[in-house]
Amino acid sequence: MKKIFNFGRKKGQSPPRPFIKLPSYFGVQTPYPTEGYQIRSKDLGKIHKAALLGDVAKVQQLLLLGKSTVNDLDKMKRTPLHLACANGYPDVVSLLVERKCELNLLDNDSRTPLIKAIECQQEECATILLEHGADPNLGDSKNNNALHYIASGRTKFMAEKLIKHKIDIEAKNKEGFTPLLLAITTMNTEMADFLLKNGANVNALDSCKRTALMIAVSVESIALVTLLLQNNADYTLQDIAGWTAQTYAERYGYPLHIYHKQIEKQKELYNTCSSQISCSEKASSTGFALGAPSLDKKEESSAEESISRLSDNPGPDDHLPSTDKELDFDTESKKKEKQKRNTKQNKAK
């Protein structure tokens, strides 16, 4: 099975760039989920054909005559509800729900009707299911829940509604990806921002202990790196190879040093921690997940200033770039340092 990342686990070994296409556990090899089902007539029963076409009258007739039931499975283990949701027929969905169909049965790909409605962006069908008690936390065979499917796209389609229905925002699939980590991998900035605003752990780790910041640096997304640092991503964490976000930046030529003011402030907070108080208490009191102890009142004021500088309106000295045009990989400071070295060498001669 292809993985988004697939580097060796020896300490110090260079991790490769992430594989941006969706992994095979989404059942596709394209950047976006494939909508609908692949349909073969020979796989379908009569009620499945009617549901597939949105023929409410035919579905009702088959049920009344007792020739079919609401939970009949076709040869691919799809119920009429799966097919109606995938193709966007809310009237058929409503009829099946009224007739007490099972809402959480799994098809041959281990997907519920709700996941199929989300994947195919059939909001009305998905809403009916949620309002009638469909379980949003059921995952597919690789433990991807509905938020994973949304994160793999380019929007935050229905994410807010799923949060209201208590979906697990920190659920991990078999690769260890939370919805946030997957949103970062597929560069779904809108979804990443939404998840962070709704309490997603900015320092969540995948199965190889990679953080969202490491992934954002690897895919060279300025907007995502900026977003994560504004949300106090911990740049000191190490993956299984002992690499930090800075190591990734050096590997891929990403100019993480342009954020030096924000990073230096985090270092200052880290170094001034009191040894009497636990690291976790410090992290919770300041919002920085750096694993260092808490601050006294004076230092807390400094921490608040640091956090405010990472707000949506940073000052001129703490400007965070948000577009490719604002990134100069050969920065002015580097040029000046080079000129100074050349001047010293000329004088020495």
Automatic annotation (TrEMBL):
Keywords assigned: ANK repeat
Region spans: Disordered: 290-349
Positions annotated as ANK repeat: 76-108, 109-141, 175-207
Amino acid composition bias (Basic residues), ranges on this chain: 336-349
Taxonomic superkingdom: Eukaryota
Biased segments, Basic and acidic residues type: 316-335
InterPro entries per UniProt: Ankyrin_repeat_domain, Ankyrin_rpt, Ankyrin_rpt-contain_sf
Ribonucleoprotein in keyword set: no
Official protein name in the record: Ankyrin repeat domain-containing protein 7
